[in-house]
Write a structure and sequence with these properties.
The chain is of the alpha/beta class and 567 residues long. It is built from 16 helices and 27 strands.
Length: 567
């Protein structure tokens, strides 16, 4: 990468340097993995000026700086993102299809309420017509817009401390929260990632994660711009309909890098049929897995499914991060098999890291690697805030140049202000092992249970249960006793409900109770089997456990069968 790029003070300077030096290209694929458009850095710089010139007249005097971007077309999203910045405003990535997805509409409504925009940039009139955007000025694409003759007024002007964009958290545990990231944070992250993931101008990334999410924005838009490589973009809705698009695109474009949450790898391993292809994944050096707990079983399944395609299990790079850290905090280095430890499930429930007592006591923990350059990770006692030693479960605390800590809001460890993440895990002295979020943990009889681990066990209990569409939490049964009990909500696969009579459904529920009792030590007394598509999810596909709990306690969720209390 050219030295001038490393000296960029903000994202616009990065873009302009990259446009002058060459490199960086964005490629859009359709639902059959065919290229339907490309955008180079030079074209992006020119088009961003044109969009900024059209945007300025839509803003009244005294208008706020925040501009939501609602664009399913990835090339227009990239143009809009830098066009908003070029106008001296702050882009706010928003869900791409609010008119067809209830979760997207809810998220968009929250973004509009918090950011108070006067204008939105959208890629279609249909997108712009949703009720959440009523009363806002809308800027739509305008063909091949020429650049204005002079630099657009209001440009950021190289201030590294200015806001680069507002990233909203996923909202899996409540309402999405805004995180304001400065140019300084983002540029620091891009430099860290280029080193950690060994990215060069010859790299090629292929991804399908929505660009409105931190993983999609950073891995598919910003990191390619920093190192000057090609980014191939798959529509996330196309991927969910046909997971084979991902390995097909990685084959066609000779991908070296990709990034996705655990469920994406699991979906591919499960849904891409044997005999499909042929695929060639021999060039994939980094397959980053993050955004939700990384499962050893998922990595094994994906590696085995694509073993004949030349995929190397050592390419997996389990990572840990969050929007408050721009994206990545820790990661396993490339070409090193992911670290997996077999631990005592019973001891983990008591907050201790110990060897398993026997085969039935094994719980696998996947290393998320060491911290990135100039990044610090500590494990704190959740109650006292004191730093804990290795192999002790506590709350993850992070600090680094990529971490946005609002003034006066950081938690001091020594003299360093950092961010208490609300995530639970431990270190081995060097690498981080993540167990789950504090809000996803509940206690029963003095033992700790983590929803994500329990939900995986529910999905594995029977093939009629939809993987990734289960929720386990503690709640008060509707109309029942005034104490919380463990509750399981499980979606059945589409069509399975029509094949179930009462006895079959009861047997399925009992298999769930047995799986959690024997395998996880959790005595479950309530299981609701619900139709496919019932459980509320975030726009990235994560279960909204808080909403699930509310619907359960209010008896407001349709069910195929209700087993135990709360019937």
């Amino acid at each position: 990468m050219a030295t001038t790029d490393r000296n960029a003070r903000d994202l616009l300077e990065l873009l302009d340097h990259r446009a002058a030096a060459g490199g960086a290209r964005y490629v859009r694929l359709d639902s059959r993995a065919r290229c339907t458009g490309e955008l180079t850095a030079a074209e992006l710089a020119r088009r961003s000026r044109g969009l900024a010139a059209r945007l300025a007249p839509l803003l009244p005097a005294g208008a706020g700086p925040y501009v939501p971007i609602v664009a399913r077309d990835p090339l227009f999203f990239v143009e809009a993102f830098f066009g908003v910045l070029r106008a001296g405003l702050v882009p706010v990535p928003a869900p791409a299809a609010p008119h067809t997805h209830r979760g997207h509409a809810r998220r968009l409504a929250g973004i509009v309420e918090v950011s108070g925009p006067h204008v939105v940039v959208a890629d279609t009139p249909q997108t712009a017509a949703v009720p959440e955007l009523t009363g806002l000025a809308v800027l739509l694409p305008e063909g091949d817009t020429p650049a204005p003759p002079a630099a657009c007024p209001g440009r950021v002007g190289g201030d590294p401390d200015a806001a680069a964009y507002v990233q909203y958290t996923s909202g899996s545990l409540g309402a999405p929260k805004p995180v304001v990231l400065g140019h300084r944070h983002v540029l620091a992250q891009l430099a860290q990632a280029a080193q950690a993931f060994e990215e060069t101008a010859e790299s090629v990334s292929v991804g399908w994660v929505p660009l409105s999410h931190d993983m999609g924005l950073v891995t598919a838009v910003l990191r390619p711009l920093w190192s000057g490589y090609t980014s191939v973009l798959i529509d996330p809705f196309d991927f969910v309909r046909d997971p084979a698009l991902w390995p097909r695109a990685m084959t066609d474009w000779r991908a070296t890098h990709t990034s996705a949450p655990d469920f994406g790898y699991a979906l591919c391993a499960r849904k891409v049929p044997e005999g499909a292809g042929p695929y060639d994944l021999t060039r994939v050096r980094v397959a980053r897995s993050a955004g939700e707990p990384v499962r050893a079983a998922t990595m094994r399944a994906f590696a085995e499914r694509f073993r004949e395609a030349g995929f190397d299990h050592a390419a997996f790079a389990p990572s840990y991060g969050m929007a408050e850290a721009t994206l990545t905090v820790t990661t396993c280095p490339p070409r090193r098999p992911p670290g997996i430890r077999e631990l005592s499930a019973a001891a983990l429930r008591k907050g201790s890291v110990e060897a398993p007592a026997g085969p039935e006591d094994v719980q696998e923990a996947v290393s998320c690697g060491p911290p990135l350059r100039d990044t610090r990770v500590e494990i704190l006692d959740p109650d006292t805030g004191e730093v804990l030693g290795p192999d002790t479960v506590g709350e993850v605390w992070i600090a680094g140049p990529q971490v946005a800590v609002p003034l006066g809001c950081g938690h001091l460890v020594g003299q360093v202000a950092g961010h208490r993440t609300g995530d639970l895990g431990f270190t081995d002295g060097t690498e981080l092992y993540l167990l789950g979020r504090a809000k996803e943990r509940f206690q029963l009889a003095g033992e700790n249970f983590y929803s994500v681990e329990l939900e995986a066990a529910v999905a594995a209990a029977d093939s009629r249960i939809r993987p990734g569409r289960t929720a386990v939490f503690a709640a008060r049964p509707p109309g029942g006793e005034d104490r919380s009990v463990p509750v399981v909500l499980a979606e059945c696969r589409a069509g399975a409900e029509t094949e179930m009579d009462e006895a079959t459904a009861r047997s399925l529920a009992r298999s769930v109770v047995s799986a959690l009792g024997r395998g996880m030590g959790l005595p479950v007394s309530v299981v609701w089997l619900v139709p496919a598509g019932t459980l509320p999810v975030t726009t990235s596909g994560k279960i909204r456990r808080g909403s699930c709990r509310d619907a359960f306690e209010e008896n407001a969720m349709p069910a195929i069968h209700r087993y135990g209390q709360g019937q």
